[in-house]
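Design a sequence for this backbone.
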């Protein structure tokens, strides 16, 4: 991790917690004697309010992205004010030279900060695409199973992209394409990973060729877990391990409780630290990941799986390029997923090893904290130069 220790000074952390609680803002000051101005970063504040030990246990990439962007700006001589992306009551009292926002605040603050350079940090597909995609998946579930479940990944409407002077997008061409209507130049930035694993070349593929993993965060229907459970409940000689906070979605968990808790070939682990020994044991004993998500920016689950050398069976909407070592799903059906699982399990051992190693190498070459930092630094430097900031 590249963040300096002074970032986690206990007195500074305490002070940030206090200002966050009272004012909803965290102010970071450059160690440079002369400031080039102040940047407003509308993202997440909590990573600046925890100890280094707590930070390193963080499972999601978002805190790392936010802190890395703040560090890059501080290194360039800017002061940085950080607010949460959903802080819709914040009113600027400072003149900002730049605002970087992930969701709705760019649109809201544009009238208040007319001369500020506005950057949209895109983390997912366009809100309208995502909302329709999840609604469609819920409708397909209702038709298939005769029940209604709650939506979990609906996004608030936002016109951020239309107000942006510049934009970046985590992910492949899929997520970026959902914003093409705005006619903006969008720089693609590869998602970083918080986990790394040794090469899978020595894995015993003959033993694990029928073992698969589903890893995901919130939104089980959105991320296709319903389809995956239905597939493996009919493939008794295959094994599936489910990692994710599924219990938090009580309607889904209760509907699929038999598959999750009472089906011999399906193991439900729940939320897991992907940097733990437990997770390493799981991926060491699996051949592939199944992740039929309907909408992502760039899936951290898929990127983590590639680092672990799992062969991915995913949708294009998962936002990760996995050709030629992975498989893409086209119609998201139970039958197509079943066929893909069987197809991978029947590949020759040498090909399983080759695909697995290729996935691992791809992740290490494209999805690390160092590469994220390098690419975002190049983007920010380009904006600074063009805008003469």
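Sequence:
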């Amino acid at each position: 991790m590249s963040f300096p220790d002074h970032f986690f000074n206990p007195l500074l952390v305490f002070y940030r917690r206090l200002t966050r609680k009272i004012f909803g803002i965290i102010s970071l000051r450059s160690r440079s004697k002369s400031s080039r101005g102040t940047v407003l970063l509308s993202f997440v504040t909590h990573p600046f309010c925890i100890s280094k030990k707590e930070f390193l246990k963080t499972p999601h990439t978002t805190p790392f992205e936010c802190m890395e962007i703040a560090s890059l700006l501080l290194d360039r001589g800017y002061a940085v004010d950080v607010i949460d992306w959903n802080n819709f009551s914040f009113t600027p009292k400072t003149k900002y030279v730049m605002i970087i926002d992930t969701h709705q605040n760019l649109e809201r603050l544009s009238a208040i900060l007319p001369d500020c350079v506005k950057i949209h940090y895109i983390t997912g597909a366009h809100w309208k695409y995502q909302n329709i995609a999840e609604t469609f998946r819920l409708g397909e579930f209702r038709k298939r199973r005769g029940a209604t479940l709650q939506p979990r990944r609906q996004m608030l409407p936002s016109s951020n992209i239309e107000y942006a002077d510049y934009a970046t997008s985590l992910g492949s061409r899929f997520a970026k394409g959902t914003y093409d209507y705005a006619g903006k130049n969008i720089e693609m930035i590869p998602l970083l990973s918080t986990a790394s694993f040794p090469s899978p070349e020595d894995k015993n593929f003959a033993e694990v060729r029928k073992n698969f993993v589903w890893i995901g965060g919130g939104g089980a229907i959105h991320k296709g877990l319903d389809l995956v459970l239905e597939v493996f409940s009919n493939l008794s000689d295959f094994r599936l391990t489910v990692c994710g906070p599924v219990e938090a979605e009580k309607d889904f968990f209760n509907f699929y409780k038999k598959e999750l808790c009472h089906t011999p070939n399906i193991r439900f682990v729940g939320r897991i630290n992907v940097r733990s020994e437990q997770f390493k044991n799981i991926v060491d004993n699996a051949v592939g990941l199944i992740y039929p998500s309907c909408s992502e920016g760039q899936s951290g689950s898929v990127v983590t799986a590639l680092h672990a050398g799992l062969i991915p069976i995913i949708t294009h909407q998962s936002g990760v390029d996995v050709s030629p070592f992975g498989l893409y799903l086209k119609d998201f059906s139970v039958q197509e997923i079943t066929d893909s699982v069987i197809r991978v399990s029947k590949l020759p051992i040498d090909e399983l090893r080759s695909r697995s190693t290729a996935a691992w190498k791809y992740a290490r070459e494209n999805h690390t904290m160092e590469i994220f930092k390098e690419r975002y630094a190049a983007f920010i430097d380009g904006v600074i130069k063009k805008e003469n900031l």
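The chain has a mean pLDDT of 95.
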